[in-house]
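Hey, can you fold this one?
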Amino acid sequence: MLKKFAAFFVMAVLFSSFIITNAHAETSFKAEKFPYDQMQIQIMPEFDYPADWPQNTPSLLVGIYGTMTNKSGQDFDGKIEIPIPAKEKNFEVNLVAEFPDVNKSEVQRPYNVDKAKQTISWKPAKPIKNNETYRFVIEYYANSIAVKSKKTFTYQFTSQADIKTLDVIYYAPMNAKNITLTPKAQNTDKSDYGEELSYYEYNNVKAGKSFQFSSSYIKPGNESTLSIINKQQPPNDENHAGLKDNSTSSQTASTGTDSSRPIIGIGGAIIIGIAVIIAGLFVFFGLKRNNQPAKKRRSTLPKAGSKQPAKSTKRKENKLANDEAKKELRKKLLNGKIDQETYEEEMKKLI
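Sure. Predicted structure:
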């Protein structure tokens, strides 16, 4: 009897171990099973500084926004794991968050950095159902900028999974001169505050594809872009009304309290890079398409004399105009021409 009980006990332990092992395997993150509908990477040299950043040292802030879909064939309740350059000097995570709803701001999540594996991981607030999308943002600082006669750095990215649309945005430091970018930007723009933006767009990126972006520029000192912009007067228009002379009433950013570094609060909505903190999700769409000539965009409208019923044609024209208006709003938000509150109010009118 004792032998039978012992044998039963051993079998029970083995069976339990088998179940636990398989349960763990089912919830492990396999990047290739979570392809991206959209990803946006924002590369921001000397854009901002954490509170404890070493003095006289330029920082590189990187923001990664992703919209992935669970294609594993089952619900996922494990931890997401993303590669990061955790071994970079002065590496520091600024934000890990998820977007529970398209029309709501991000919700921060507890995270863990594995320096040996150079990854960051976190568990979503709720399981990601099979075929369900999940939106997240990661922001981190790294001491990647070499300083000689010029300031230079290289940012590298390798896709873990397939990506339908990959947007990369380079924020040139304010007061920088002789800026070079390799590869050459596909599109460029300027904010109301004079900050130069360079855009890249890639479609149908396959897992394992690597990208490298190198930049050099000349800039005296290491004052951040946010600090320089905060010293400027906002443009004199209705979109920036009420934002003048309000820096003293703004709340101090979580990144620091040093007076020589930027203050981000309500007035921070005027800053072009506030999209990185508040509205990164809304600038995923159509950055390259927004910069195409208007004639090319209008070519998608129904041709005159088409056989479509008048009402159907009108509805399609209205929808296309509505979509273009939404894209323009997103672009204005990114470029600092409108603040987050204005963006949300105007979007409601178009929904």
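The first strand starts at residue 36 and ends at 45. Let me know if you want another pass with a different chain boundary.
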